[in-house]
Amino acid sequence: MTRFTVWVMVVASTLTLLACSAAKAADRSLPSDTGVINVRDYGAVGDGKADDTAALRAAVHFALDRQSRYATPPMVYLPKGTYRITGPIAGKVSDHGWSGGWRAGLILWGESRQETIIKLQDQLPEFGDRAKPLAVLATGSESDKTTKPGDEPLSGGGNRAFRHSVINLTIDIGVGNPGAVGIDYVANNRGTIEAVTIRSSDPSGAGHTGLKMTRNWPGPCLIKDVLIEGFDRGIDVAHHEYGNTFEDITLLRQNEAGLVNRQNMLAIHRLRSTNAVPVIKAEDNNGLIVLVDGHFVGTDTRVAAVTGKGEFYLRDVRIEGYTKAIDIQRQGAQSVATENGAAKIDLYTTERFGMGEVEEAQPLRLPIQDTPAFWSADMSDWVKPQQHLPQAGQGTEAPVDGDWTEALQAAMDAGKPVVYLPNGSYRVSKTILVPPHVRLIIGFQSSITLGKDQADVVDPLLRFVGQGGEATIVEHVWISGHVEHAATRAVAFRHCDLNGRYRNTAQGTGALFIEDTIGPKPLLVQHPQNVFARQLNIEFGHEPLIENHGGNLWLLGYKTEGEMVCIRQTAGQTELLGGLLYPLRQVQGGTPAFLIVGGKASLSFAMSGPKYPTAVRIRVKDGEQNLTASAVGGRATALVTLTAGNDVVAKAGQVDPDVIQDGGVPFRKGKQSGDTPAEFTDKNGNTWSGVALGSTPDLDKPDAWKPLQWNPAAQRWEGEALADQAPSFHRDRILRGRAGQGKLVGLIFKPAKPGVFALSGKAVIDTWLPDSPSTVVVQIINAEGKVQRLVDQEYADRSVIDWSSHEALKAIRLQQGDRLLITFSPLKGQTGSLSLSSQDKPTAIDPLPSP
Fold it and tell me: Against a cut of 0.85, is the pTM above it?
């Protein structure tokens, strides 16, 4: 049900003028052996007088002209200095050839934000025409097109602009360059502009755009701790893909608008502005802007602070010096005036939807924590694995057998707060343990990988261990394996690729921070934990990309790709502030974007391209509720708030009051311990138990079956590792298996006494791979292990099984020691589930009357 309410608290007093200045970032001096490309080695002088254009171009060219630019692209390092340039610096190796010369993986790293300056010479004719804007710095996407000299150059727009990053420096367009763009930026999946100042030194603020993101297709990427001073437009974003995340942005002295958006999804946390023009200008109905925590100071009361079209979610925004706070020009939207030029916006949304037990949609307002940071300028605090090679100091920098396990573990155990990985790849063959004294693991675009046949053998690749300690931060590392959080301290991943699963153990209670990261897949919060994610990109998979089983999950900017469940929650809370869902084709089989089985959630998101017909599905006591894509307009949704729950009140007269049994398959409630087996007795004294069956050939081998154990956070019984969603038997009476990994699950029925029984009711199949078939087997196994198959049938995805349609299940004779086994097996290796608690008629096994 749609609920529209505008909450505005107007303050009459004048607010204190916002002090707009970028915080001084820490200098980031580096050891001499990190493998970065130093522009001084290519002739750059950095004295503000010499022309360093050719030197910077040569360094960039050398960094990009290599095959390793995806996993281990080297950084381009700029020591302190003012680098005067007279032409554009672009992420290219040439002006023609494959991809028109554009390459992915341009990473510029300055030693000091204040003292590392790329300075455009004043009054350059090439930058003098505002109608023909030209960038001081530009990144671009790779393309399979090839151009020849004389062809029209490629723009560099596209969706293969991976990992472009600009960190810890200043871009200055000088004086008298009205056509100059500070940074013309496109990045995909991960990429960042962080701790950067983009400024016009012109007294009038002359300049086209500070940060221009208008080529196809900007994002997902993270723009963090950025100050833009001057320019006609501070930030300009266009196109409907793929979503962008902003945090700690300061806008000063723009001539037209601070931030302009057309069709994109922008997730923003902390935006500060002092301007005589609108702070936010939305130019298209299909855009979504989510902003939490803004402070806008206007110096011209004739304009509105926020103006334009599209969907908005604005929260905790202070406004002063503007005639109007909000002026949205679309049907049904409400404008908000100021009083004496001031307003405080507690919450403004262009639309809201409440689901489940929610009476009026309100955000969860989960507490927000900043990502921890650590840096040491003392090089004696740094250690690298090369120092622990057997042949260290003998002129060789790699292990003889190529296995870095011992050297990398020795570096972790060396007692130093910083472990650094010089640019390159580090293959290991065992789990690497990260102890509490390690504060920072920094790779200079390095990778930690496993051998070809070790992906399923070494699990996890990284394990964070120990009690206490400050947060451990992992930066600029490609990790090709699973990660396990088994420590009480916080762990943060920044600018990383996590090509495996993340999971926390019962001891892994420290917070998780994720920034500008590809993966993990899946992100599995299986025990209570606080999670803070900024610019999270997870793509594809035959299972939910995120599983929340009791944590508090806060996401600012979340982009998906594929047709699977994006978030599944059985317990806990999830607050999504700006999601961009990108199925590559129309989603089939009823798969929802968000599946909320239990707990609370508030969601702000947009969909691009083909749609999820079901945007949100929740479980409630009497069934389920669905919010369709058409109900939310098919594109952007400012706010959906919901509470889901499936607790069933135990009926009076049950033999065991702790067993929930509503005429179907029972389920034990109440507190369980980690070693509690999935075994309980129903009201007739019959025994039920859930078991892991292993691989398909083990279906008929009871000696190979293993009891499922209780996971209290997920409220379900799981396989022995308590680390995956399959095999498992869930609180809502769902059997889940994954055949491709030999993780089948079965439910055993053992009668209290011999007799004739009927399997009745219904069950529903749901697989994460749309339209994929599954097999259901029902069999009797007697005390001697002899097997009698009653049902062995393949079903399509989303099938509803009516047990009474099988003649063999209408009168099942069970003798002393016999067991009836129901097995679910999804085909094609994906995860799937068999719900035994159909909404209209749950599965039940009842004794038939004696003849």
Answer: no
